[in-house]
Amino acid sequence: MKLVILLIFPFLGLAQSDSVKPKVLFSGNIQLTNNGISPVPFFTLGKPALLTNLYITKGNLSFSPELNYDLKAKPWSVNTWLRYRLIHTNKFSFFVGNNFSFIFKSLPEDATQNQFLVQRYQMLDLTGSYKLKKNRILNLLYWKTKGLDKGAIQSANFVMLTMNFIDLLSNKFGLLSIKANAFVIDNSSPFTGVFISQITSYNPKKSSLFFTFQTVKPIYITPSGSFKWNVGLNLPF
Length: 237
Prior knowledge:
By secondary structure, this protein is mainly beta.
């Protein structure tokens, strides 16, 4: 809660300033996937899912809620990302953020009258972004997660390095972009792993839809894990 207050305080200062107020920007994306890969890419729903993202930005502050469901409208996860941009130059940006998340797990119908077990988590988010070229951006992020309920993973660390190749291929048919990732997961379940992954995005010309193809390959993992893949149909707005 203290972190949330620290993040909101600069935003309130902006709102009270006599200078020109930054505009509030809204955008979002709805994605239909076959496998439901989570923001920590190794973890999946394991069946088709509908992922919804909303982005609200004003100046250096942004709020990005995520609501994720399976195709029977049963909730899977809810994330409430709140971020503040502390540093911004032509080349480098640094963000600090917080996320309260809820993970819904289905229970057997005869186990209890409750349909879901809900686990709550709080996450510290630190992200750095460096622009190598106009369409080549390097990102490094760190998430420190704490489970807030009994039975939840009590602590977890996630570090990911991403190289963004934006509009790697552009022609009369559309635009192709690639995100190449290397990441480490270390949590108290116990579960530890080193992975490489990629997300390829294809945006056809004169289309409001775009397509994504994602793969995740373990390099080292304990106790066990395997190659994962996911395709998505996206509708930005």
